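Re: your question from the hallway

Yes, I did run it. Sequences:
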Amino acid sequence: EVQLVESGGGLAQPGGSLRLSCAASGFTFRTYSMNWVRQAPGKGLEWVSYISSSGNNIYYADSVKGRFTISRDNAKNSLLLQMSSLRPEDTAVYYCAREVDTTIFIDFWGQGTLVTVSS
Amino acid sequence: QSVLTQPPSVSGAPGQRVTISCTGSSSDIGSSYHVHWYQQLPGTAPKLLIYDNTNRPSGVPDRFSGSKSGTSASLAIAGLQAEDEADYYCQSFASSRSAYVFGTGTKVTVL
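Structure:
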């Protein structure tokens, strides 16, 4: 059974940092591209970042560029999102999402982890 | 950062057919990138509904269908059922920004 389990969410202060993790199982992680997508409370979906299966290609949304860093460890079947210089508008549920390589769509989503940025 | 426009809401009686539009531009949908659709039931993670404009993943009922023309796409739900009440999002790719783009989302209500 395919599973994506996010962790690391919680309360952070404006200007602070947080590190999200996503543990993947039930599929060959190293052959899939991965994404982070977020959803602010009561709002729509917003794509955050993409990383190719090898980790060689990485994209970011303009709203997080220079503040967030996506990475992956194919040996540990894990996806990471290092978030720094956090702003209140980063408050959202963050979803880890799987993509069949180069298809540019998400075929499986995790259940999400809530990040709240507030003083 | 949504660049794909959807109607905020659509509604229909059980058994009716509803359609949801998704309007982009020459930089995304019009650049020959496919459109994909996701269904998000209340309190749950999104689920892939339609990929590559018209294709349904295994397990998605054939009541759901997609189409694309020019800079727009549409999702149709035929024979509307109570369990179809959800938010629906389109998604494509904006090559000029190397960014995935989602639609603004549409809430479907079954009357």
